[in-house]
TrEMBL record:
Pfam families: HTH_24. Keywords: DNA-binding, Transcription, Transcription regulation. SMART domains: HTH_ARSR. The lineage of its organism: Bacteria, Pseudomonadati, Pseudomonadota, Betaproteobacteria, Nitrosomonadales. This is ArsR/SmtB family transcription factor.
Length: 101
């Protein structure tokens, strides 16, 4: 058995992604986005059964986990799915699983 003193760099932020993806409400929020779509908080709230406060919380968790990105334009904040980052993070896990240990 190896004793790890630190988590490998490729895995450093993966745990936050798994936390973000580990909730059904957050999964529904992610799945509500069309390909290359950018949505505001109000648009996400309108398509959800959650309160604005709850949606805001879930958006923060998704953004912290790297699943979403955002940009403020004027008074609105637009969110979009960060597929490239999620693919890379999950590929790091798959690569680990394929390694001969």
């Amino acid at each position: 058995m190896k004793v790890l003193t630190h988590i490998p760099e490729a895995w450093a932020e993966i745990s936050d992604l798994f936390v973000a993806l580990g909730d059904a409400h957050r999964q529904r929020i992610l799945l509500s986005f069309e390909k290359n779509e950018r949505l505001t908080i109000l648009q996400i709230v309108d398509s959800s059964q959650l309160s604005r406060t709850a949606v805001t919380h879930h958006l923060k968790v998704l953004e912290r986990g790297g699943a979403l990105r955002s940009e403020k334009i004027g008074r609105e904040v637009y969110f979009w799915v960060n597929k490239d980052w999620m693919q890379q993070a999950l590929q790091n896990v798959i690569s680990y699983l394929k390694e001969d240990i």
